[in-house]
Specification:
- This protein has 180 residues and is an alpha+beta fold.
- It folds into 2 domains: 2-41, no CATH class; 45-176, Nucleoside Triphosphate Pyrophosphohydrolase (Alpha-Beta Complex).
- The protein is built from 3 helices and 12 strands; from the N terminus they run βββββββαβββββαα.
- It has a 4-stranded mixed sheet, sandwiched between helices.
- β1 (7-16) and β2 form a beta hairpin.
- The protein is elongated, with a radius of gyration of 18 Å.
- The two termini are 32 Å apart.
Length: 180
């Protein structure tokens, strides 16, 4: 695999925003030539597959500005400085849904945009949910709803769930339950 590796020659900050940082690197390719790589630095995130006591999944509907439409998603959010992924998961679930998880089960980590971002999303199932206080971020608007796993899988098949973290999370949970 070493023969495929690209080596950084120079690295330049292009943009430094509230969420994303854009870099432009000059790299040496495996054949000795040079090229440019532009990419987004991301702090990482957590997505949760929350199971209600009745066995249904807790999902959200949220408008996503870049695509100008509403998406069905798992509750999720970025990792804040000083947090580990489990802390982020517990915090985000409560903020977005008003439920607190009694137990988290790590499923996997995914890299949703490997061609232009270093983002990693950690997937956790959330169990033993207890009602709590919902307190979304100031500029966050969403609807909370529940579906059975089979209903969620049907929405994926119909193309109504297309968000990659949600697809990966639901499929990972279905696989763990022997329903893939």
């Amino acid at each position: 695999m070493e023969k495929l590796k690209e080596t950084t020659i120079t690295s330049e900050k292009v943009y430094d925003g509230a969420l994303l940082r854009v870099r432009k690197d000059s790299v040496r390719l495996p054949d000795g030539k040079t090229s440019v790589r532009e990419y987004i630095r991301h702090p990482g995130a957590v997505a949760l597959i929350p199971w209600l006591p009745d066995g249904k999944l807790l999902l959200i509907r949220q408008f996503r500005y870049p695509l100008k439409r509403v998406f069905i998603e798992l509750p999720a959010g970025k990792i804040d400085p000083g947090e580990n992924p489990e802390q982020t998961g517990i915090r985000e679930l409560e903020e977005e849904t008003g439920y607190r998880a009694g137990r988290l089960l790590y499923l996997s980590s995914i890299h949703p945009c490997i061609g232009y971002s270093d983002e990693v999303i950690h997937l956790y199932e959330a169990f033993d949910l207890q009602r709590s206080q919902r307190c979304p971020d100031e500029h966050e608007f969403m609807e909370i709803f529940s579906l059975s796993l089979d209903e969620a899988l049907r929405l994926i098949e119909k193309g109504e769930i297309t968000d990659v973290k949600t697809l990966a999370g639901i499929y990972a949970a279905a696989h763990r339950k022997g329903r893939s």
